[in-house]
Write a structure and sequence with these properties.
Layout (H helix, E strand, L loop, with lengths): L3 E8 L8 E8 L2 E5 L11 E3 L4 E4 L1 E3 L7 H4 L4 H4 L3 E6 L12 H10 L1 H4 L11 H5 L9 E4 L1 E2 H8 L9 H16 L4 E5 L10 H13 L3 E5 L11 H13 L3 E3 L12 H13 L4 E5 L4 E5 L13 H9 L1 H11 L13 E4 L14 H8 L3 H12 L4 E5 L6 H5 L4 E3 L13 H16 L5 H8 L1 H7 L15 E4 L22 E4 L2 E5 L2 E2 L7 E2 L7
Parallel strand pairs: 1-4, 1-5, 6-7, 7-8, 8-22, 9-10, 10-11, 11-12, 12-13, 13-17
Antiparallel strand pairs: 1-2, 2-3, 5-18, 14-16, 15-16, 18-19, 19-20, 20-21
């Protein structure tokens, strides 16, 4: 007897092919497909999926949930969307390996406005030790990519200076060992110190190691290069790919809200690179709002030396004056309009009233200049504040979502009272708006972008397709009713029309409710199938 049989649903297998009808059988954690009569197959449970689509679980190629999930293993904002696998370690900000617990804790604190806190003290140092934290302890599977920030801390430290030859060799060893322990490639966040202090040459050398081991390069590109040309940040990424041979993945790829240039310039960059023989892909999110830790707005020199240097800058009068000068000059500090920087994740009771308000509104309430207000809040709240802002041109977003070389990544932060609405709605928005309402995509193609394509990009061999012998990560949804209700003003709302989510053969979401099962696994590169 098998454990689960899903019958009467339209099977859309994740390859982009049209749907068909049959039964999806789940034997332990493995899928089998039966067309025709299946009455002879006995199952402990049968789900009648009449009027519903049965497809592979969605794979999020840009997740910031790796630490949050340690405290909240139900992972409801994501699993309720149909997400069954997430890629963590994004934007260069992964949390292993480190030499000492002190370095690990300092990095977690520096980055807590983007990737949250785990239960403290954090009790791992290596990639292998970190991945053990997810096996049978979470609702979803976790794939890990190595960020270049811990690599640089290991080899160079927290300083903004070039690596010596010996330090570069040490960093290359870190990349090799981390991939041997299960990492899928190398990620960069070239606006986030200390990883942003890496030169193009350094990244090429590290990428050569990752490429030899079958990895890929997942990059948040270097915004400071914009002053040299509209596409310069992404041209640097392609240069790294060409000179190292590594496949390149451009993350949260879109046209900015300012609308400089044409979105066709961005898409043409990818198309031309692929026409020239490069393996280039991208992901994008489905809402027009950006989101990150608000400390990204500070000049890079404030973190030259690490956490202690940043804390000093936030309180030292001379440093604050220098920051204000730099942040008033376009291109120096990443500072945007304070009227469109909405803050969340306040911890102190007297600041909770500011949740979801803009920096300009908070500064007015406090009777301060916007920048002084920001510096005070960061010092007071311990760097944990994150921001939601209008960062994408909504008019050209459909061209990115529907492009054949693009896939979906939520880039979602899972904390604060007013997170980005994509935290709860990124994937169902594709099905409801981009497919059903506006018809930018056919349903099978949309599912491919959220299943087999990201599995192919990461390198996961046995997920992302409903096929005999593949792992049983499955979503059942109503294509006529699925929708998201998450908005900027009311972001923490679960989607409708996704009654069942199965992970590794276990029903995790059952008629819209979490079952208490935690069958997620760490998916390790090179791990033999068992």
């Amino acid at each position: 007897m098998i454990n689960l049989k899903i019958v009467n649903g339209e099977i859309i297998d994740g390859t982009g092919s049209p749907g068909y009808f049959g039964a999806v059988l789940v034997d332990e954690d493995t899928v089998h497909i039966v067309r025709g009569d299946h009455s002879h197959v006995l199952a402990a449970r049968t789900i009648d999926a009449t009027g519903h689509v049965v497809c592979p679980g969605f794979i999020d190629v840009h997740s910031h949930g790796g630490l949050t999930i340690m405290s909240e293993p139900e992972h409801l904002p994501k699993v309720r969307q149909g997400v069954t696998t997430e890629l963590i370690g994004i934007d260069g900000n992964s949390v292993a390996p480190f030499k000492t617990q002190e370095e690990l804790h300092s990095f977690i604190e520096l980055d807590c406005g983007l990737n949250d806190w785990p239960p403290m003290p954090a009790d791992w140092l290596t990639v292998a030790q970190l991945l053990l934290k997810y096996d049978q302890r979470a609702s979803v599977n976790i794939a890990y990519i190595l960020g270049n920030s811990p690599v640089r801390i290991w080899g160079v430290g927290w300083q903004d200076r070039p690596a010596t030859s010996k330090e570069l060799e040490d960093m290359k060893s870190v990349v090799r060992e981390s991939m041997e322990e299960g990492a899928w490639g190398l990620s960069t966040g070239l606006d986030y110190p200390p990883g942003s202090y890496a030169s193009t040459v350094e990244l090429i050398e590290l990428s050569k190691v990752a490429e030899r081991m079958g990895g890929f390069y997942h990059t948040h590109t270097r915004a400071s290069l914009l002053k040299t040309g509209l596409l310069a940040p992404w041209e640097e990424a392609l240069e790294i790919g060409r000179k190292s041979g590594i496949p390149v993945h451009l993350t949260h790829y879109r046209q900015s809200v300012q609308g400089v240039g044409s979105h066709l310039d961005y898409l043409g960059l990818v198309e031309n690179a692929r026409a020239g023989g490069m393996d280039v892909t991208f992901d994008c999110y489905t809402y027009p709002y950006s989101g990150t830790r608000i400390s990204i707005a500070l000049p890079q020199w404030t973190m030259d030396g690490g956490l202690g240097r940043l804390k000093k800058a936030l309180t030292d009068p001379r440093d604050r004056a220098r920051m204000k000068k730099d942040m008033s000059e376009p291109g120096k500090g990443g500072w945007r309009n304070p009227d469109e920087q909405w803050l969340t994740n306040f911890k102190l009771p007297h600041n909770k009233r500011f949740e979801g308000h803009s920096i300009a509104e908070i500064a007015e309430a406090k009777g301060q200049d916007s920048l002084d207000c920001l510096f005070d809040l960061l010092a007071e709240e311990g760097l944990g504040l994150s921001t939601v802002s209008l960062g994408t041109n909504p008019h050209t977003l459909p061209a990115f979502v529907s492009h054949p070389y693009g896939m979906i990544g939520s880039d979602a932060l899972l904390f604060g009272d007013y997170p980005n609405p994509r935290t709860y709605g990124c994937f169902p928005l594709v099905l409801a708006e981009f497919v059903r309402a506006e018809k930018h995509l056919r349903l099978p193609e949309a599912i491919r972008k959220m299943t087999s394509f990201p599995a192919q990009r990461i390198g996961i061999p046995d997920r992302g397709v409903l096929r005999d012998g593949f792992r049983a990560d499955i979503v059942v949804f109503d294509k006529h009713r699925v929708k998201t209700r998450a908005t900027k003003k009311n972001p923490k709302v679960f989607p409708e029309g996704i009654p069942y989510v199965i992970v590794n053969g276990k029903v995790v979401i059952d008629d819209g409710r979490h079952t208490g099962e935690f069958p997620g696994r760490a998916l390790r590169r090179g791990q033999p199938r068992t």
